Amino acid sequence: MNTCLAPCPLVFDLDGTLLDSAPDIHATVNAVLRTQDVPPLSLDRVRSFVGGGVDILWRKIILATALPPEAQGDLVASFMARYHHATALTRLYPNVLESLGVLADRGHPLGICTNKPLGPARAVLEHFGLISLFGVVIGGDSLPQKKPDPAPLHASLAALGSDPAHPRGIYVGDSEFDAECAANAGLPFLIFSRGYRNTAISDLYHSAEFDNFAHLPGLVEQHAELARA
User: Fold this and answer.
1) Threshold 0.85, pTM exceeds
2) Taking Cα atoms as reference points, which of 161, 155, 170, 168 lies closest to residue 216?
């Protein structure tokens, strides 16, 4: 067997990586803003706020709308009440399901490490019938730390069987938070270029970039040995 196909663990971000979920996040944000008589934000504006988790999302919305900072707790609660099952507008990126199937068939343990809260993360994976592919799902509220702290990524890899003292694997994501997390963890990072980043890929830590999930199994094969080093 080609050693490049050795089944190293693969951990994925969710929003902007496997899923184009910004339309549902956008609709949920504007539903909350309507309750405050605040004009809606554009999809592009909300998309640019995604990646750091719900608290950072609403911190940025408050700055963009001049809502009072002390209202953040209530706004987040109102958002979360609507967000747990916000899946109607979310879509898998093309070739995600096929690519995950190839990687699983090759024996790679698969996991999720996202700043999306665990409840909505699991709900959307279940909605698309993906939950059984992943041996672990770490959400933004699973640990005290969030990305770009490497702790959630290390926890994901440990749950997939990597040595907790020296966790190895490949991380796949789309954003500045993901790139910095992979760098902090000392792992190869494959960046999906059609996601939600606000920074040029050339300015971000990454091992390779791709714009089509059909290319991912080949990239994993190329980087698997580096991931095991």
Assistant:
1) yes
2) 170
